């Protein structure tokens, strides 16, 4: 398994400025599909319950988990790149609160 993300670089992400959310979602969905990230964005990925469970995983499962973490952060970076500098701090505050409440599970639903 490779240690680097090999997805084609996305040079342009439409900026969401607080209006036309439906249009922005359609564009982001298209980017996620083209990058092979849509299933991950919609469904997430398997995470260990704790360090003991992770230690019990075989090498293939651990490598898949590590690669999915990278893909997840790549998708999140695309979302962040698509948020206006006024919208981003507001969204980060919401995500931080949600993150604490949902035990480190970020919202994933973009339709």
Automatic annotation (TrEMBL):
Protein name as annotated: DUF4219 domain-containing protein
Lineage, highest ranks first: Eukaryota, Viridiplantae, Streptophyta, Embryophyta, Tracheophyta
């Amino acid at each position: 398994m490779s240690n680097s993300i090999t997805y084609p670089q996305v040079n342009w992400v439409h900026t969401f400025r607080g209006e036309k959310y439906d249009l922005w979602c359609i564009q982001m969905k298209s980017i996620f599909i083209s990058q092979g990230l849509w299933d991950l964005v919609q469904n997430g990925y398997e995470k260990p319950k704790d360090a003991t469970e992770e230690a019990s995983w075989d090498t293939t499962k651990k490598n898949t988990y590590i690669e999915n973490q990278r893909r997840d952060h790549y998708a999140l970076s695309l979302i962040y790149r698509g948020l206006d500098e006024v919208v981003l701090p507001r969204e980060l505050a919401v995500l931080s609160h949600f993150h604490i409440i949902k035990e480190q599970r970020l919202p994933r639903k973009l339709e």
